[in-house]
Structures are given as C-alpha cells and as structure tokens.
Amino acid sequence: MAASQRKSLKISTIIPGSNQDWKRKLIFWRRNLVFWAGAVVVGISASLFAIASEYANKVFRLLLSESVYLPFIVTPLGLVLVAILTTRYFAGSQGSGIPQTIAALSLPSHSDRNKLLSLRIAFGKILLTLLGLFSGASIGREGPTVQIGASIMHSLGRFAHFPRHDLEKGLVLAGGAAGVAAAFNTPLAGIVFAIEEMSRSFEHRTSGTILISVVLAGVTAQALLGNYTYFGHTSAYISDLGWQWSTVAICGVAGGLLGGGFSRMLLMSSQALPGRLQTFRQQYPLRFVALCGFILALLGLASGSTIYGTGYHEVTQLLEGKEPLPESFGILKMAATFISYLSGIPGGVFAPSLATGAGLGANLAPLMPYVPAGAVIVLGMVAYFSGVVQAPITAFVIVMEMTENHDIVLPLMATSFIAFTVSKIVCPKPLYQTLAQGFLQRIESSEPKNNPAP
C-alpha cells in the first residue's frame, strides 16, 4: 500500500465521514438561518403593515370628520377598485389568508403552493388590505399577516434547497405562526395557533425551529413597535366561584350561537347566495361589490360611524369605559364584517370578530350588574371569537395576551370551550378548514387532466 493511501486511510479512520459531517452541518445551519432570517423579515413586515393599517384607518376617519355621507361614495368606489386589482393582478390574495395558508400545507408540489403563497401575493395582500381599510371595509390585518408571513418564508425556502416536503411545510407553518405572533404581539398565541388551527399534525422535529421563528418575529415586532398590548391592560376579574360564574355560561352560549351562526353564513355565502342575488353576483360582479360598499355605508350611518375598519379603537373605548357606543354596535359590526367578506376583497375577520364580541359583552353587561362590566366584555370577546374560528385554546390565549389579564384565565378558558361546543352544534364544519378545502378543490380542478390517447 502506498504511503499516501495509508495516510488517507489513517485520517478517515480518525475522522470518519468528516466531509459528509461538515456538509450535513452546513445544510443544517443554512436551513435554520433561513427560518430565523425569515422570521425577522416577517416581524418587520408585520410591524410596517400594522403602522400602515393604522394610518389607513386614520385617513378614513378624517374623511368621516368632513361628512358622514362621504362613505356612500368612497366605500363603493374603493371596494370596486380593490376587486379589480385582486382579479387582474393578485389572484389568490382574496379573503382572510388563513384558509390559503392551511390549503398550502396540504398541497403536494412547490408549484401548486406558489398559487397561494408568493411574494407577489404578499405584496398584493398588503396593498389591497390597506386600500380596503382606507375605503372603510370592516376587515382586519391579522389574517392577511398569516398569509404574508407564510409567503415570505415559503419564498425564502429556495435559498436553502429543502429536499423534503415536510421541511417545506415547516416553512409555511412557521411563517403563518410568526405572522400571528407579530400581528397581535402575542408570541404564545402564535405557537398555539400553529398547533391548533393551521396544522392538525404538528411534528416534534420541526417544533423547535417554529418556536424560534415565532419568538424572533415577536421580538422584532416589539423592537419596532414597543412592548405594547393590543387592547391595553384590563384588571377586571371574576372572583366568586358561585353566582358570578353564571356569566361564563351566559357569555359562552351567546357567543357560541352568534359566532357559529356567523361562520355558517360565511360558508353558505362562499358557495352560493339565495336566488336572484347569486345570479346578480355572477353576471355583474363589480356592481355587486359596489352594492356591498353601499350597504356598508348604510350600516356605518346607522352605527354612528363605528363599524368601519378593524374595530380596534371601539374595543379599547369599551374596555376603558371612555364613551359609550351604540347598543347596536355588536350586531352591526357583525353585519358589516359579513358584507365586507361577501364583497370578496382581501381582509381578515380576526379583529372585527373581537370587536363584535366586545359589543356582545357590552350588551350583556347590564343584565349582570354583579360582575364588572370589563370582565363581561372580555368574556364576550373570547366567546364570539371562539365561536367563529372554533379554536378555543387559540381564542383564550390571544385574548389573555392582548388584554394582559392573567387573573381571568380560568373564566376565559371555560367561556371559550363552552362557546366552541355550542358553535359546533350551529356550524359543524370549522370555518378556515372548510374554506381551505375550497381552495384545494379549485387548484385541483384547474390542473390539466392526463387523458389517454384515443
């Protein structure tokens, strides 16, 4: 045996597979860096999106200060513009964004996922959601942030050459969860949302990476926006385990009925509308969108201009007890959110659902004077939100983190699960999972069929 061969053999014996080990380590760190860098980008994007959304709300409220009748012009025209841009340039960006992200997790190929997650769609989601808020639509930015985060992570994945479908799925899952964490400034809720709502088969081997991604996105958002709580701080609590706890059952049942009914209406409208209305939507889609805008303006006028936008200011107002809102705020906000969704423009239902739930709690509070009004409002929020999304753990964690109130954890948890149980009776199919199936079916039907030659 030659001296060079003996030397090579000796080195390989001392450091077995050294080249392969270094390659594996390099791949490992490159993939993790993609996750971590993507999480920081998601945090920055979510923070800038939040700032821009608040600015769009302020601009619309400046219009309202000029005249409460301006929405009869601005809202229909704005929604039509958003609908045109969505159809022509940003297909796949309509609606909440959470169903698209859930659907992408089930798609087998990278090219199919590109139809729902891409930087083009992310840009369109931001632009069109801002235009919708500027037009007065009752929509939120949190659902869109999920799709934006997933699109960013999915697009960055090509730099790491992930060889396995599971790892690509991990990118989408991490991006969506990081989007929730950064949008609400609630890192724990992002983790829970990934487990409970976005993935029914959360795998242990990717959980650590997703956890780090969520934390990084949350830290980035806090660095840019400060360590704020979404709806401030409320110290309301329920201490009496007897009579006061009847509030939990009342809010849970009421929120479950209303939230489940709202989800059922959304699912029914996503398939077909009654009779001539469905024909009108199919034959004259832009006129239908303009009609939705006109109805929104009517609802705004009836509510004293309180149903526009995300509902963030109205919820804060209720929790802080500054100025009373109309008693019809909750039901009108729910109607406005339904009409906004019906128009087909991009925008989420997270924040509007929390606002509707707060309105529900404000309506129930006078019926239970033995409980602090703030506590009933918070329970109404978690009940309605849980009824809509049918993700009870996510619901109570989000509300707990957003209000920075740990004294009410057990009532929140109980209310959320009661609402979830009642909602399942009213609407057996979960909202986001069912809408995701619709996206999957449309993608499958658009694929060319391999017909055998005659």
Task: Give the key terms.
single chain; 454 residues; mainly alpha; Clc chloride channel; 2 domains; 73% helix
Give a short summary of the structure:
This protein is an all-alpha fold and 454 residues long. It has helices at 3-14, 18-66, 71-89, 98-106, 110-113, 119-134, 142-156, 165-184, 187-198, 204-225, 246-271, 275-283, 285-302, 312-320, 329-342, 350-364, 373-389, 392-403, 409-426, 431-446. It is built from 20 helices and no strands.
Task: Give the biggest sheet.
Answer: none
Q: Would you list the SSEs in sequence order as H and E?
A: HHHHHHHHHHHHHHHHHHHH
CATH architecture annotation name of the largest domain: Orthogonal Bundle
What does the average pLDDT come to? Answer: 78
Give the % helix.
over 70%
Low-pLDDT segments, ≥5 res = 6-16, 201-208, 227-233, 449-454
Q: What gross morphology would you assign?
A: globular
CATH class of the largest domain: Mainly Alpha
How would you sum up this structure, described in words?
The chain has two domains: about 35-225, Orthogonal Bundle (Clc chloride channel), CATH 1.10.3080.10; about 245-435, Clc chloride channel, CATH 1.10.3080.10. It has helices at about 5-15, 20-65, 70-90, 100-105, 110-115, 120-135, 140-155, 165-185, 185-200, 205-225, 245-270, 275-285, 285-300, 310-320, 330-340, 350-365, 375-390, 390-405, 410-425, 430-445. The N and C termini lie far apart (about 65 Å). The protein has 20 helices and no strands. About 55% of the residues are buried. The protein is globular, with a radius of gyration of 24 Å. The protein is about 75% helix and about 0% strand. With about 450 residues, the chain is an all-alpha fold. Residues about 5-15, about 200-210, about 225-235 and about 450-454 have low confidence and may be disordered.
